């Protein structure tokens, strides 16, 4: 923090630092996702992601419930998300759509 004439000048980190940290985070997140999702080879027979959700981020297979009721269905739902993450997710497009809201 410094005073330059009549204006207050704030010195901070170069903006490139934030871009670098974001890039490092994206790379580590992608590696972790690849590691966790590599074991799933097929999509569950009954699609647990078809049900409607009330809000973004809600798990469709347990709509209206906080805790899992059926553990087999919970496992299938998580496997479906992992399979979709590994095969179909385009993060850049998802982030762009969320920013447009």
How would you characterize the overall build of this protein?
There is one protein chain. This protein is mainly α. Helix content is 50%, strand content 6%. It is built from three helices and two strands, in the order E-E-H-H-H. The protein has helices at 15-37, 71-87, 91-100, and strands at 2-4, 7-9. It has a two-stranded antiparallel ribbon with strand order 1-2.
Quick structural gist:
With 101 residues, the chain is mainly alpha-helical.
Identify the notable features of this structure and list them briefly:
101 residues
Uncertain residue ranges: none
Q: What is the percent of helical residues?
A: 40-55%
Strand fraction equals 5-15%
Distance between the termini: 35 Å
Largest sheet: 2 strands, antiparallel
General form: extended
Following the backbone from N to C, one meets helices and strands in this order, namely: EEHHH
Number of strands: 2
Spatial order of the strands forming the largest sheet: 1-2
* Overall pLDDT: 78
Q: If you compute it from the alpha carbons, what radius of gyration comes out, rounded to the nearest whole angstrom?
A: 21 Å
């Amino acid at each position: 923090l410094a005073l330059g004439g009549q204006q207050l000048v704030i010195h901070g980190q170069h903006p490139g630092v934030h871009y670098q940290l974001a890039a490092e985070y994206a790379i580590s997140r992608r590696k972790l996702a690849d590691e966790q999702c590599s074991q799933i080879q097929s999509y569950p027979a009954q699609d647990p992601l078809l049900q409607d959700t009330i809000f973004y981020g809600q798990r469709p297979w347990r709509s209206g419930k906080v805790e899992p009721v059926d553990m087999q269905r919970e496992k299938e739902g998580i496997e479906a998300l992992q399979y979709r993450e590994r095969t179909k997710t385009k993060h850049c497009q998802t982030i762009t759509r969320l920013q447009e809201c």
